[in-house]
Amino acid sequence: MIKKIIFGLFAATVLVGCTDDLNTEPRVEQSLDNLLDSDSNATLGILGKLYGGLALHGIGIPGSGNQQADIAGDDPGETVFFRAIWNMQELTTDIAKNRWGDGGLDPLTTATNWVPTNKFFGYLYNRSYFNIAQINNFIIDVQKTDDANAELYVAEARYLRALFYYYLMDTFGGVVLVTEADGVTGVSRAKSTRTEVFDFVESELLAVEETIPASNEYGRANKAAVHMLLAKVYLNAEVYTGTDRYADALTYSEKVILESPFTLDDDYQSIFQGDNFTSPEIIFPIIGDRNTVQSFGTATYLTNGSLGDTTMPIADFGNSESWFGHRCTPAIYGLFGDLETTPDSRAIFWTEGHSYEMDDYRTWESGYPTTKFQNQYSDGSSGQSRFSDTDIPLFRLGDAYLMYAEAFFRGGGGSAAQAVDYINALRERAYGDASGNITEADLTEQFLIDERARELYYEGHRRQDLIRFGRFTGGNYNWPWKGNVADGAAIPDHYNLFPFPLEALQANPLLEQNPGYTN
Length: 519
What we know:
By secondary structure, the chain is mostly helical. It is 39% helix and 4% strand. It has helices at residues 6-13, 32-38, 42-52, 81-91, 105-110, 119-142, 150-172, 194-208, 223-235, 237-241, 246-259, 299-305, 330-333, 397-409, 416-431, 445-456, 462-468, 502-507, and strands spanning 58-59, 68-69, 96-98, 282-286, 326-328, 392-396. A two-stranded antiparallel ribbon has the order 1-2. The protein has a two-stranded antiparallel ribbon with strand order 3-5. It has a two-stranded antiparallel sheet with strand order 4-6. Strand 1 (58-59) and strand 2 form a beta hairpin.
Protein backbone atom coordinates (compact mmCIF):
# COMPACT_ATOMS: atom_id res chain seq x y z
CA MET A 1 0.00 0.00 0.00
CA ILE A 2 1.42 3.40 -0.96
CA LYS A 3 0.46 4.73 2.49
CA LYS A 4 2.92 2.29 4.07
CA ILE A 5 5.54 1.76 1.36
CA ILE A 6 5.98 4.80 -0.81
CA PHE A 7 5.57 7.41 1.90
CA GLY A 8 8.05 5.50 4.05
CA LEU A 9 10.61 5.49 1.25
CA PHE A 10 9.87 9.13 0.54
CA ALA A 11 11.58 10.28 3.72
CA ALA A 12 14.85 8.67 2.67
CA THR A 13 14.88 9.64 -0.99
CA VAL A 14 13.26 13.06 -1.08
CA LEU A 15 14.28 15.53 -3.76
CA VAL A 16 15.27 18.79 -2.10
CA GLY A 17 14.34 21.90 -4.04
CA CYS A 18 12.18 24.97 -4.34
CA THR A 19 10.61 26.85 -7.20
CA ASP A 20 8.67 30.08 -7.22
CA ASP A 21 8.23 29.94 -10.97
CA LEU A 22 9.26 28.05 -14.05
CA ASN A 23 12.74 29.49 -14.38
CA THR A 24 14.17 27.46 -11.50
CA GLU A 25 16.46 24.46 -11.56
CA PRO A 26 15.50 21.72 -9.08
CA ARG A 27 18.29 21.05 -6.56
CA VAL A 28 19.13 17.60 -5.23
CA GLU A 29 21.40 16.42 -2.45
CA GLN A 30 23.04 14.06 -4.92
CA SER A 31 22.45 13.62 -8.60
CA LEU A 32 19.30 11.71 -9.35
CA ASP A 33 21.31 9.51 -11.71
CA ASN A 34 23.57 8.41 -8.86
CA LEU A 35 20.68 7.93 -6.48
CA LEU A 36 18.78 5.69 -8.86
CA ASP A 37 21.89 3.65 -9.59
CA SER A 38 22.88 3.25 -5.93
CA ASP A 39 19.56 2.37 -4.32
CA SER A 40 17.20 -0.27 -5.67
CA ASN A 41 14.28 1.33 -3.80
CA ALA A 42 15.03 4.86 -4.93
CA THR A 43 12.83 4.91 -8.01
CA LEU A 44 9.74 3.83 -6.11
CA GLY A 45 10.65 6.15 -3.27
CA ILE A 46 10.98 9.18 -5.52
CA LEU A 47 7.74 8.24 -7.23
CA GLY A 48 6.31 8.43 -3.71
CA LYS A 49 7.66 11.95 -3.43
CA LEU A 50 5.74 12.84 -6.60
CA TYR A 51 2.51 11.51 -5.10
CA GLY A 52 3.47 13.21 -1.86
CA GLY A 53 3.36 16.49 -3.76
CA LEU A 54 -0.41 16.30 -3.44
CA ALA A 55 -0.36 15.87 0.32
CA LEU A 56 2.80 17.22 1.97
CA HIS A 57 4.51 20.56 2.54
CA GLY A 58 8.00 19.03 2.28
CA ILE A 59 9.82 17.09 4.98
CA GLY A 60 9.58 17.17 8.76
CA ILE A 61 6.59 17.28 11.09
CA PRO A 62 4.45 20.41 10.66
CA GLY A 63 4.72 22.78 13.61
CA SER A 64 7.76 20.99 15.04
CA GLY A 65 10.24 23.71 14.17
CA ASN A 66 12.39 21.36 12.08
CA GLN A 67 10.17 21.08 9.03
CA GLN A 68 11.48 21.99 5.58
CA ALA A 69 8.93 23.28 3.09
CA ASP A 70 9.29 22.76 -0.64
CA ILE A 71 8.09 26.29 -1.40
CA ALA A 72 8.24 29.54 0.52
CA GLY A 73 5.25 30.53 2.64
CA ASP A 74 4.18 32.08 5.92
CA ASP A 75 3.04 28.67 7.17
CA PRO A 76 4.28 25.44 5.50
CA GLY A 77 0.86 23.84 6.04
CA GLU A 78 -0.77 26.51 3.87
CA THR A 79 1.44 25.59 0.90
CA VAL A 80 0.19 21.99 0.54
CA PHE A 81 -1.38 21.37 -2.86
CA PHE A 82 -4.74 20.01 -1.72
CA ARG A 83 -5.24 22.78 0.81
CA ALA A 84 -4.45 25.34 -1.91
CA ILE A 85 -6.86 23.91 -4.48
CA TRP A 86 -9.59 23.32 -1.87
CA ASN A 87 -9.41 26.95 -0.81
CA MET A 88 -9.86 28.03 -4.42
CA GLN A 89 -12.64 25.58 -5.29
CA GLU A 90 -14.75 25.71 -2.10
CA LEU A 91 -14.14 28.91 -0.11
CA THR A 92 -14.80 31.08 -3.16
CA THR A 93 -18.27 29.56 -3.58
CA ASP A 94 -21.58 28.94 -1.86
CA ILE A 95 -20.28 25.87 -0.02
CA ALA A 96 -18.01 27.12 2.75
CA LYS A 97 -16.65 30.25 4.42
CA ASN A 98 -13.59 30.62 6.63
CA ARG A 99 -13.57 32.98 9.60
CA TRP A 100 -9.82 33.44 10.19
CA GLY A 101 -9.41 36.19 7.61
CA ASP A 102 -5.63 36.13 7.81
CA GLY A 103 -3.19 36.75 5.00
CA GLY A 104 -5.61 36.88 2.09
CA LEU A 105 -8.31 34.37 3.10
CA ASP A 106 -11.00 37.07 3.29
CA PRO A 107 -10.76 37.86 -0.45
CA LEU A 108 -11.26 34.17 -1.25
CA THR A 109 -14.15 33.82 1.18
CA THR A 110 -15.93 36.90 -0.18
CA ALA A 111 -14.81 36.64 -3.84
CA THR A 112 -13.62 40.25 -3.82
CA ASN A 113 -10.36 42.14 -4.22
CA TRP A 114 -8.42 39.42 -5.99
CA VAL A 115 -4.91 40.76 -6.49
CA PRO A 116 -1.67 39.14 -7.70
CA THR A 117 -0.02 39.67 -4.30
CA ASN A 118 -2.47 37.38 -2.49
CA LYS A 119 -0.27 34.58 -1.20
CA PHE A 120 -2.90 31.91 -1.74
CA PHE A 121 -2.76 32.33 -5.52
CA GLY A 122 0.99 31.98 -5.24
CA TYR A 123 0.76 28.81 -3.17
CA LEU A 124 -1.36 27.03 -5.78
CA TYR A 125 0.74 28.24 -8.70
CA ASN A 126 4.16 27.68 -7.13
CA ARG A 127 3.26 24.31 -5.62
CA SER A 128 1.96 23.07 -8.97
CA TYR A 129 5.10 24.10 -10.84
CA PHE A 130 7.38 22.79 -8.12
CA ASN A 131 5.70 19.41 -8.52
CA ILE A 132 5.87 19.60 -12.31
CA ALA A 133 9.61 20.35 -12.14
CA GLN A 134 10.17 17.32 -9.93
CA ILE A 135 8.13 15.15 -12.30
CA ASN A 136 10.07 16.32 -15.35
CA ASN A 137 13.36 15.58 -13.59
CA PHE A 138 12.12 12.15 -12.57
CA ILE A 139 11.02 11.26 -16.10
CA ILE A 140 14.39 12.29 -17.59
CA ASP A 141 16.39 10.10 -15.25
CA VAL A 142 14.10 7.09 -14.91
CA GLN A 143 14.13 6.71 -18.69
CA LYS A 144 17.89 6.17 -18.45
CA THR A 145 17.60 3.26 -16.03
CA ASP A 146 17.09 -0.42 -16.76
CA ASP A 147 14.38 -0.70 -14.10
CA ALA A 148 11.83 -3.28 -15.28
CA ASN A 149 9.03 -0.98 -14.12
CA ALA A 150 10.40 2.19 -15.68
CA GLU A 151 7.63 2.44 -18.28
CA LEU A 152 4.93 2.19 -15.62
CA TYR A 153 6.65 4.70 -13.34
CA VAL A 154 7.01 7.20 -16.17
CA ALA A 155 3.34 6.72 -17.10
CA GLU A 156 2.30 7.43 -13.50
CA ALA A 157 4.50 10.52 -13.43
CA ARG A 158 2.94 11.76 -16.66
CA TYR A 159 -0.50 11.20 -15.15
CA LEU A 160 0.41 13.32 -12.15
CA ARG A 161 1.83 16.02 -14.40
CA ALA A 162 -1.38 16.04 -16.44
CA LEU A 163 -3.32 16.34 -13.18
CA PHE A 164 -1.38 19.43 -12.13
CA TYR A 165 -1.75 21.02 -15.56
CA TYR A 166 -5.48 20.26 -15.44
CA TYR A 167 -5.80 22.21 -12.21
CA LEU A 168 -3.63 25.04 -13.54
CA MET A 169 -5.79 25.19 -16.68
CA ASP A 170 -8.93 25.20 -14.58
CA THR A 171 -7.81 27.96 -12.23
CA PHE A 172 -5.47 30.18 -14.28
CA GLY A 173 -6.45 29.38 -17.89
CA GLY A 174 -3.58 29.36 -20.36
CA VAL A 175 -0.27 28.64 -18.63
CA VAL A 176 3.35 27.91 -19.55
CA LEU A 177 3.86 24.29 -20.62
CA VAL A 178 7.17 22.75 -19.55
CA THR A 179 8.02 19.06 -19.96
CA GLU A 180 11.05 16.80 -19.72
CA ALA A 181 11.96 17.93 -23.23
CA ASP A 182 12.98 21.28 -21.70
CA GLY A 183 15.55 19.66 -19.40
CA VAL A 184 16.06 20.66 -15.79
CA THR A 185 17.75 24.04 -16.18
CA GLY A 186 14.55 26.07 -16.18
CA VAL A 187 12.76 27.86 -18.99
CA SER A 188 11.05 31.20 -19.56
CA ARG A 189 8.48 31.43 -22.31
CA ALA A 190 5.09 32.89 -23.07
CA LYS A 191 2.11 30.95 -21.80
CA SER A 192 0.29 28.54 -24.07
CA THR A 193 -3.38 29.17 -24.74
CA ARG A 194 -5.93 27.39 -22.62
CA THR A 195 -6.85 25.26 -25.63
CA GLU A 196 -3.22 24.26 -26.09
CA VAL A 197 -2.99 23.26 -22.44
CA PHE A 198 -6.22 21.29 -22.86
CA ASP A 199 -4.76 19.49 -25.88
CA PHE A 200 -1.60 18.67 -23.94
CA VAL A 201 -3.48 17.26 -20.95
CA GLU A 202 -5.72 15.19 -23.21
CA SER A 203 -2.79 13.82 -25.22
CA GLU A 204 -0.83 12.89 -22.09
CA LEU A 205 -3.76 11.00 -20.60
CA LEU A 206 -4.48 9.17 -23.84
CA ALA A 207 -0.79 8.28 -24.13
CA VAL A 208 -0.66 6.58 -20.72
CA GLU A 209 -4.14 5.04 -20.85
CA GLU A 210 -2.93 1.58 -21.89
CA THR A 211 0.20 1.51 -19.74
CA ILE A 212 -1.39 2.29 -16.39
CA PRO A 213 -3.07 -0.89 -15.08
CA ALA A 214 -6.70 -1.35 -14.15
CA SER A 215 -5.57 -2.22 -10.63
CA ASN A 216 -2.60 -0.63 -8.91
CA GLU A 217 -1.47 -0.19 -5.33
CA TYR A 218 -3.95 1.90 -3.39
CA GLY A 219 -2.92 5.53 -3.73
CA ARG A 220 -1.30 5.12 -7.14
CA ALA A 221 -2.90 5.96 -10.46
CA ASN A 222 -5.01 3.26 -12.09
CA LYS A 223 -6.83 3.14 -15.42
CA ALA A 224 -10.08 4.40 -13.89
CA ALA A 225 -8.20 7.44 -12.56
CA VAL A 226 -7.04 8.16 -16.11
CA HIS A 227 -10.57 7.77 -17.45
CA MET A 228 -11.95 9.89 -14.63
CA LEU A 229 -9.60 12.77 -15.37
CA LEU A 230 -10.38 12.53 -19.08
CA ALA A 231 -14.10 12.68 -18.27
CA LYS A 232 -13.47 15.78 -16.14
CA VAL A 233 -11.47 17.45 -18.87
CA TYR A 234 -14.11 16.68 -21.49
CA LEU A 235 -17.03 17.75 -19.29
CA ASN A 236 -15.42 21.19 -18.91
CA ALA A 237 -14.10 21.42 -22.47
CA GLU A 238 -16.59 24.08 -23.52
CA VAL A 239 -15.32 26.32 -20.72
CA TYR A 240 -11.69 25.58 -21.50
CA THR A 241 -11.75 25.67 -25.30
CA GLY A 242 -15.14 26.98 -26.47
CA THR A 243 -15.97 23.59 -28.02
CA ASP A 244 -18.09 21.05 -26.18
CA ARG A 245 -16.93 17.45 -25.74
CA TYR A 246 -19.93 16.09 -23.87
CA ALA A 247 -20.03 12.91 -25.94
CA ASP A 248 -16.48 12.15 -24.85
CA ALA A 249 -17.34 13.05 -21.27
CA LEU A 250 -20.16 10.52 -21.35
CA THR A 251 -17.94 7.87 -22.96
CA TYR A 252 -15.24 8.15 -20.33
CA SER A 253 -17.67 8.43 -17.44
CA GLU A 254 -19.20 5.20 -18.66
CA LYS A 255 -15.76 3.59 -18.89
CA VAL A 256 -15.19 4.42 -15.23
CA ILE A 257 -18.57 2.99 -14.27
CA LEU A 258 -18.59 -0.15 -16.41
CA GLU A 259 -14.94 -1.08 -16.94
CA SER A 260 -13.39 -0.49 -13.52
CA PRO A 261 -13.49 -2.62 -10.36
CA PHE A 262 -14.93 0.23 -8.28
CA THR A 263 -18.44 0.12 -6.80
CA LEU A 264 -20.56 2.49 -4.76
CA ASP A 265 -19.92 2.34 -1.03
CA ASP A 266 -22.99 1.19 0.87
CA ASP A 267 -22.55 3.98 3.41
CA TYR A 268 -22.00 7.60 2.36
CA GLN A 269 -20.35 8.70 5.61
CA SER A 270 -17.75 5.94 5.50
CA ILE A 271 -16.26 7.44 2.32
CA PHE A 272 -14.96 10.30 4.48
CA GLN A 273 -13.79 8.58 7.67
CA GLY A 274 -10.40 7.55 9.00
CA ASP A 275 -10.50 4.06 7.51
CA ASN A 276 -11.85 5.13 4.13
CA PHE A 277 -8.95 3.40 2.39
CA THR A 278 -11.26 0.36 2.59
CA SER A 279 -14.01 2.10 0.59
CA PRO A 280 -14.74 0.41 -2.76
CA GLU A 281 -15.72 3.79 -4.23
CA ILE A 282 -12.50 5.79 -4.02
CA ILE A 283 -10.74 5.75 -7.38
CA PHE A 284 -7.84 8.10 -6.68
CA PRO A 285 -7.11 9.30 -3.14
CA ILE A 286 -4.78 11.82 -1.58
CA ILE A 287 -3.35 9.79 1.27
CA GLY A 288 -3.75 10.75 4.91
CA ASP A 289 -2.06 8.91 7.77
CA ARG A 290 -1.53 10.22 11.29
CA ASN A 291 1.90 8.62 11.49
CA THR A 292 3.43 8.66 8.01
CA VAL A 293 1.61 11.53 6.24
CA GLN A 294 1.54 14.27 8.84
CA SER A 295 0.17 17.27 7.04
CA PHE A 296 -1.93 20.34 7.77
CA GLY A 297 -2.99 20.41 4.15
CA THR A 298 -4.99 17.23 3.57
CA ALA A 299 -8.04 16.02 5.49
CA THR A 300 -6.46 17.45 8.65
CA TYR A 301 -7.32 20.89 7.26
CA LEU A 302 -10.95 19.84 6.82
CA THR A 303 -11.42 17.87 10.05
CA ASN A 304 -9.60 20.21 12.43
CA GLY A 305 -10.76 23.31 10.58
CA SER A 306 -14.44 22.36 10.86
CA LEU A 307 -14.48 21.70 14.61
CA GLY A 308 -14.78 24.26 17.35
CA ASP A 309 -16.83 25.13 20.40
CA THR A 310 -17.70 22.98 23.38
CA THR A 311 -21.01 21.90 21.85
CA MET A 312 -18.96 19.75 19.46
CA PRO A 313 -17.42 16.71 21.18
CA ILE A 314 -14.24 16.64 19.10
CA ALA A 315 -13.11 13.33 20.60
CA ASP A 316 -16.16 11.69 19.06
CA PHE A 317 -14.79 12.65 15.66
CA GLY A 318 -11.29 11.29 16.37
CA ASN A 319 -9.76 14.73 16.90
CA SER A 320 -7.46 16.16 19.53
CA GLU A 321 -7.52 19.68 18.02
CA SER A 322 -10.21 22.05 16.77
CA TRP A 323 -9.44 25.20 14.79
CA PHE A 324 -12.76 27.12 14.73
CA GLY A 325 -12.43 27.77 11.00
CA HIS A 326 -14.81 26.56 8.30
CA ARG A 327 -18.58 26.63 8.23
CA CYS A 328 -20.98 25.86 5.40
CA THR A 329 -23.53 28.40 4.22
CA PRO A 330 -27.34 28.17 3.97
CA ALA A 331 -26.90 27.85 0.21
CA ILE A 332 -25.73 24.25 0.68
CA TYR A 333 -27.55 23.00 3.76
CA GLY A 334 -30.72 24.67 2.53
CA LEU A 335 -30.70 22.20 -0.38
CA PHE A 336 -31.57 19.42 2.07
CA GLY A 337 -34.73 21.06 3.39
CA ASP A 338 -35.42 20.83 7.10
CA LEU A 339 -32.25 19.40 8.63
CA GLU A 340 -34.22 18.06 11.60
CA THR A 341 -36.41 15.87 9.41
CA THR A 342 -34.54 15.29 6.15
CA PRO A 343 -34.09 11.60 5.34
CA ASP A 344 -31.03 12.44 3.20
CA SER A 345 -28.00 11.02 5.03
CA ARG A 346 -25.66 13.33 3.11
CA ALA A 347 -26.85 16.26 5.25
CA ILE A 348 -24.00 16.05 7.77
CA PHE A 349 -24.07 19.41 9.56
CA TRP A 350 -23.61 20.48 13.17
CA THR A 351 -26.42 22.83 14.19
CA GLU A 352 -26.17 23.07 17.99
CA GLY A 353 -24.84 26.44 19.08
CA HIS A 354 -24.88 27.80 15.52
CA SER A 355 -27.29 29.99 13.58
CA TYR A 356 -28.89 28.94 10.30
CA GLU A 357 -28.21 32.30 8.68
CA MET A 358 -24.65 33.44 8.14
CA ASP A 359 -24.96 37.04 9.25
CA ASP A 360 -21.23 37.38 9.89
CA TYR A 361 -18.85 34.93 8.27
CA ARG A 362 -16.10 36.01 10.70
CA THR A 363 -18.14 34.72 13.65
CA TRP A 364 -17.74 31.00 14.39
CA GLU A 365 -21.36 30.52 15.48
CA SER A 366 -22.67 31.98 12.20
CA GLY A 367 -23.50 29.12 9.82
CA TYR A 368 -23.30 25.36 10.29
CA PRO A 369 -20.02 23.40 10.30
CA THR A 370 -19.99 20.03 8.58
CA THR A 371 -18.50 16.87 10.04
CA LYS A 372 -18.62 15.08 6.69
CA PHE A 373 -14.84 14.56 6.91
CA GLN A 374 -13.84 13.06 10.26
CA ASN A 375 -11.02 11.03 11.80
CA GLN A 376 -13.38 8.56 13.44
CA TYR A 377 -13.36 5.12 11.82
CA SER A 378 -16.49 3.50 10.43
CA ASP A 379 -16.66 1.12 13.40
CA GLY A 380 -16.62 4.04 15.85
CA SER A 381 -13.00 3.56 16.92
CA SER A 382 -9.89 5.64 16.22
CA GLY A 383 -8.81 7.43 19.36
CA GLN A 384 -7.77 11.07 19.12
CA SER A 385 -5.15 12.53 16.82
CA ARG A 386 -3.80 15.88 15.72
CA PHE A 387 -3.34 14.57 12.18
CA SER A 388 -5.98 12.85 10.11
CA ASP A 389 -5.97 9.26 8.90
CA THR A 390 -8.70 10.15 6.41
CA ASP A 391 -7.84 10.05 2.71
CA ILE A 392 -9.18 12.69 0.35
CA PRO A 393 -11.32 10.99 -2.33
CA LEU A 394 -10.05 13.24 -5.12
CA PHE A 395 -11.92 11.08 -7.63
CA ARG A 396 -14.68 8.67 -6.66
CA LEU A 397 -17.29 6.65 -8.51
CA GLY A 398 -20.29 8.71 -7.37
CA ASP A 399 -18.98 11.67 -9.35
CA ALA A 400 -18.77 9.53 -12.50
CA TYR A 401 -22.50 8.76 -12.09
CA LEU A 402 -23.25 12.47 -11.90
CA MET A 403 -21.00 13.28 -14.86
CA TYR A 404 -22.77 10.70 -17.01
CA ALA A 405 -26.15 12.26 -16.17
CA GLU A 406 -24.93 15.77 -16.92
CA ALA A 407 -23.22 14.77 -20.16
CA PHE A 408 -26.46 13.10 -21.26
CA PHE A 409 -28.47 16.20 -20.33
CA ARG A 410 -26.11 18.38 -22.36
CA GLY A 411 -26.51 16.27 -25.49
CA GLY A 412 -23.58 13.87 -25.12
CA GLY A 413 -25.60 10.74 -25.96
CA GLY A 414 -26.45 7.88 -23.66
CA SER A 415 -29.97 7.35 -22.41
CA ALA A 416 -32.32 9.16 -20.08
CA ALA A 417 -33.19 5.91 -18.34
CA GLN A 418 -29.53 5.22 -17.58
CA ALA A 419 -28.91 8.76 -16.37
CA VAL A 420 -31.88 8.55 -14.02
CA ASP A 421 -30.77 5.13 -12.78
CA TYR A 422 -27.32 6.48 -11.89
CA ILE A 423 -28.80 9.45 -10.05
CA ASN A 424 -31.22 7.21 -8.20
CA ALA A 425 -28.45 4.84 -7.16
CA LEU A 426 -26.86 7.76 -5.30
CA ARG A 427 -30.17 8.92 -3.85
CA GLU A 428 -31.19 5.45 -2.70
CA ARG A 429 -27.92 5.24 -0.80
CA ALA A 430 -28.60 8.68 0.69
CA TYR A 431 -32.23 7.99 1.62
CA GLY A 432 -31.94 4.32 2.48
CA ASP A 433 -34.80 3.51 0.13
CA ALA A 434 -36.46 4.68 -3.09
CA SER A 435 -38.39 7.54 -1.48
CA GLY A 436 -36.01 10.14 -2.89
CA ASN A 437 -35.90 8.75 -6.42
CA ILE A 438 -36.41 11.04 -9.40
CA THR A 439 -37.93 10.56 -12.84
CA GLU A 440 -36.73 11.76 -16.23
CA ALA A 441 -38.87 14.89 -15.86
CA ASP A 442 -36.82 15.89 -12.80
CA LEU A 443 -33.55 15.83 -14.73
CA THR A 444 -33.20 19.59 -15.19
CA GLU A 445 -30.23 21.94 -15.11
CA GLN A 446 -31.23 23.21 -11.67
CA PHE A 447 -31.58 19.71 -10.30
CA LEU A 448 -28.16 18.68 -11.67
CA ILE A 449 -26.22 21.58 -10.15
CA ASP A 450 -28.08 21.12 -6.86
CA GLU A 451 -27.51 17.37 -6.80
CA ARG A 452 -23.81 17.82 -7.45
CA ALA A 453 -23.75 20.09 -4.40
CA ARG A 454 -25.64 17.61 -2.24
CA GLU A 455 -23.40 14.72 -3.22
CA LEU A 456 -20.00 16.40 -3.56
CA TYR A 457 -19.94 19.39 -1.21
CA TYR A 458 -16.64 19.96 0.59
CA GLU A 459 -14.74 17.73 -1.86
CA GLY A 460 -13.17 20.46 -4.00
CA HIS A 461 -15.41 20.62 -7.11
CA ARG A 462 -17.84 23.47 -6.57
CA ARG A 463 -16.19 26.49 -8.23
CA GLN A 464 -15.59 24.45 -11.37
CA ASP A 465 -19.22 23.29 -11.36
CA LEU A 466 -20.63 26.79 -10.89
CA ILE A 467 -18.52 28.12 -13.76
CA ARG A 468 -19.64 25.30 -16.05
CA PHE A 469 -23.28 26.06 -15.21
CA GLY A 470 -22.75 29.81 -15.73
CA ARG A 471 -23.47 30.64 -12.08
CA PHE A 472 -20.17 31.72 -10.59
CA THR A 473 -19.64 35.28 -11.78
CA GLY A 474 -22.30 37.90 -12.48
CA GLY A 475 -25.40 38.23 -10.34
CA ASN A 476 -27.82 35.62 -11.65
CA TYR A 477 -26.92 33.37 -8.70
CA ASN A 478 -25.80 34.93 -5.44
CA TRP A 479 -24.90 33.26 -2.17
CA PRO A 480 -24.04 34.49 1.32
CA TRP A 481 -21.07 36.86 1.26
CA LYS A 482 -20.48 36.63 -2.46
CA GLY A 483 -19.12 40.03 -3.37
CA ASN A 484 -18.62 40.77 0.35
CA VAL A 485 -22.36 41.33 0.85
CA ALA A 486 -24.31 39.30 3.39
CA ASP A 487 -27.04 38.40 0.88
CA GLY A 488 -24.62 38.12 -2.03
CA ALA A 489 -23.83 40.42 -4.94
CA ALA A 490 -22.54 40.19 -8.49
CA ILE A 491 -18.83 39.68 -9.08
CA PRO A 492 -17.00 40.46 -12.37
CA ASP A 493 -16.68 37.90 -15.14
CA HIS A 494 -12.88 37.95 -15.09
CA TYR A 495 -13.10 36.20 -11.70
CA ASN A 496 -13.71 32.99 -13.63
CA LEU A 497 -9.90 32.87 -13.65
CA PHE A 498 -7.48 33.72 -10.86
CA PRO A 499 -4.71 36.29 -11.30
CA PHE A 500 -1.19 35.06 -11.87
CA PRO A 501 0.85 35.71 -8.72
CA LEU A 502 3.16 38.70 -8.84
CA GLU A 503 6.30 36.67 -8.17
CA ALA A 504 5.56 34.50 -11.22
CA LEU A 505 5.20 37.57 -13.43
CA GLN A 506 8.45 39.02 -12.07
CA ALA A 507 10.33 35.75 -12.56
CA ASN A 508 9.07 35.24 -16.11
CA PRO A 509 8.75 38.53 -18.03
CA LEU A 510 7.10 36.66 -20.92
CA LEU A 511 4.13 35.66 -18.74
CA GLU A 512 1.16 37.97 -19.27
CA GLN A 513 -1.38 38.69 -16.54
CA ASN A 514 -4.92 37.40 -17.01
CA PRO A 515 -7.40 40.00 -18.34
CA GLY A 516 -9.07 42.19 -15.73
CA TYR A 517 -6.19 42.13 -13.26
CA THR A 518 -3.38 44.62 -12.81
CA ASN A 519 0.12 43.84 -11.64
